[in-house]
Amino acid sequence: MDSLSIRKSIDEIYDEIVTIRRDIHMHPELSEHEERTENAICSYLDKLSIEYEKDISGHGVIARIGKKNAEYGVAIRADIDALPIKESTGLPYASVNDGVMHACGHDIHTAILIGTAKLLKGMENELKGAVKLFFQPAEETTGGAAGMIQHDGLNSPRITRVLSLHVDPNYPTGTVYLSTGKMNASTTDMSIKVKGVACHGAHPDKGIDAIVAASHIVLALQTISSRFAAPTTPVIVTIGTISGGTKENVIAGEVELKGTIRALDFETRDFIKAHIKTIAENTAAAFGAYAEVSMLDGYPPLVNDKESALTIADIARKEFGESGIVFMEEPSLGADDFAYFTSKVRGVYFNIGTYKKGQHEPQMLHNEFFSPDEECIKAGILMEVLGTLKFLDEDEPGA
Q: Can you name the residues that pair with 178 across neighbouring β-strands?
């Protein structure tokens, strides 16, 4: 099916997909609690006669389109969870779940993938391989992508390529924004417990002030990016919380610092972790205190396959013009668990613009006013369908 025919088909289902998106938006669910969303997705798949498995990696769904005996396949992923944010858009389909909102566009991602599923199902007999659809939970917390892979999601048939998209309010609708290599950072959570000796605030010489030691550790950690890493190497060490002390006239005996580490490759990540431990322990020791450092690695770096990214870029250029494709000048230090997929299979992650001229409220992800232009749904379905068909064509055995 050519691009014009696909666009016509998208126009025909657009109102239906918008209705689906608004229903999901009105009933957002937090990570690991996406039960209604999962059931709604399964209901739509049932109507399309698409086979699927549910309750994967929590409330995830893996669906399959294509011939039963297909030797290979391409996978598409959409995340389905919402955020703990109170919506302030005032829209008629605003969240009815107080304090929960689709402020990161996962409702759009899910609706786009349902629309893509409907179009690909209509082409099922002509598909060269199979297509797997990952409706993935818990992107915002535990990383549901890992569980979907562990469920053997990249096999039966063998997945040769995987793609995913994300809404982006920094660019107008009809724009595709991506990288041909490093796209997003790895994540590591850290905790530093600084232990001193509590005593009366009037006699600080009798104790060891954990707050003073912890404060110096916070300042010293800032030198990792400014003095230990090359200026051309993006590094983030952020302390997000400080907890300690019991009363205004008591020298604190213990303080806990919690934060995040971001890096674009494993070598840099491990380098940062080693320096954090050294700085924390030795700075605490200088004040007579003790630092207990613990770190937990999260998502890996998200690195696009160059060839796959260039294919998506070529499609965007043909469909939206030269101004419709923007290449990232530098990677983002944000993170996405789609990185679990790209660490296993060649893949591409790209953003689609959602900004509409005339919007007055701030349009930012994770913001209570976030209200993406729903026309981006058309662009999203078009890119997913054309990208999938192109990858199936390129990856055909013997091609």
A: 327, 350
